[in-house]
Write a structure and sequence with these properties.
Layout lengths: L3 H16 L38 E3 L23 E6 L21 H14 L8 E6 L14 H27 L4 E5 L2 H14 L8 E5 L24 E3 L3 E3 L32 E2 L6 E2 L6 E3 L2 E4 L24 H27 L3
Length: about 350
């Protein structure tokens, strides 16, 4: 029986087509030009590897102005403490025809794809962490969205492995040139969660780096409870050195069931108690202008997160029961405040420990 990283990767490779099928257990036929990749992975060249000394190869970086610095107007002017760092791995923004000779993996120089990344994942997800953490988010040769549709496991794996070589290289560069002993968080979404899992296994779990690890946010992919040996799912809102995960669907929808940990991002527990809207701190919708408190309720159900149909101008037009794209921004303020709580718990514990160690023997 496979456990840990083997089980996680095998499950991801097998269920990717079903995860992308927002209308149920059957895989939808691609309907958009450029989504289908006609030939095998080996038939196309790979884009050149990025150099992370070049700040242009970072979608978010403290030394440049980028969408991760933005906040809705209602949060403007808030104090930014940034006592920690977040290494953020963005989701898939390479979904169509790249317009170049590369197919299975994106070229980090592709301006169209980079714009999709910046205006989507970086603005609506990475920016969540900018009040308590410096944000580092590498551009990487992300695998094409087609990996979520094809059943060819070899092509999927090769595309994901190539993407991971960049994420790994960027994380090493961050560690060697920027961290300087600061506490850090790993955050990711969807394809980024696949890569984050590997980063945590290779660099954090059971390694000296674990002592400075605040936690991980791993939504958008099913993460089984035994994905790690030493890193445990978070128990509550202030737990640290742990990880959280959830996948958001409309209430009463039953996608294919996977054995996975699911946290409620309002209560930050894994129990199945429904938390009503009164506890919801705030979503940020497409206009990115303001936070919307008490928009969502949330309930953990069979490894996924249920929320009732949302009510806001234009919400009646949303027919898709899969709220995957909103995993973070539907709980924008909830995650933002929680990331600060976990960092404060980490700092408090370590401060107390240092004081204890300094006492005379």
């Amino acid at each position: 029986m496979r456990t840990g990283i083997g089980k996680f990767l095998v499950m991801i490779l097998l269920v990717l087509p079903e995860i992308s099928a927002a209308q149920g257990g059957k895989v939808r036929k691609p309907i958009r030009k450029g989504v289908v990749i006609e030939n095998r992975f080996s038939a196309y060249p790979s884009p050149p590897a990025p150099d992370y000394m070049n700040i242009n190869n970072w979608a978010a970086h403290p030394d440049k102005k980028d969408p991760s610095d933005e906040v809705p107007k209602s949060l403007a002017g808030a104090e930014n403490l940034q006592a920690g760092d977040v290494f953020f791995i963005h989701s898939t923004s390479y979904t169509g025809n790249s317009g170049d000779s590369f197919r299975w993996n994106a070229d980090v120089r592709n301006e169209k794809i980079n714009k999709e990344t910046d205006n989507g994942s970086i603005r609506f997800q990475a920016s969540i962490f900018n009040n308590h953490y410096r944000v580092f988010a590498p551009r990487y040769r992300q695998a094409h969205y087609f990996i979520f549709l094809t059943h060819n496991l070899s092509d999927k794996k090769q595309a994901l492995d190539l993407a991971y070589t960049d994420v790994r290289k960027a994380f090493r560069y961050y560690l060697e040139n920027h961290r300087n002993g600061r506490p850090f968080l790993i955050a990711a979404h969807s394809q980024g969660t696949i890569h984050a899992h590997r980063i945590l296994r290779e660099f954090v779990e059971g390694k000296p780096l674990q002592q400075d690890f605040v936690g991980a946010y791993l939504p958008g992919m099913p993460v089984p409870s035994d994905s790690f040996t030493l890193l445990m799912p978070c128990k509550d809102s202030t737990d640290y050195g742990c990880w959280t995960s959830w996948r958001t669907w409309r209430y009463d929808y039953e996608p294919t069931r996977y054995t996975a940990v699911c946290h409620n991002p309002i209560s930050w527990t894994t129990d199945t108690i429904q938390v009503d809207k009164s506890g919801h701190k705030g979503a940020v919708l497409r206009d990115f202008k303001k936070t919307r408190p008490q928009l969502c309720d949330a309930k953990v159900h069979n490894g996924i997160l249920w929320v009732h149909r949302l009510k806001f101008p234009g919400s009646r037009l949303i027919k898709n029961p899969n709220y995957h794209i909103g995993d973070y921004n539907l709980f924008y303020l909830d995650v933002r405040e929680n990331a600060g709580l976990r960092l404060q718990s980490f700092v408090n514990k370590n401060t107390a420990q240092k004081m204890t160690n300094s006492l005379p023997k």
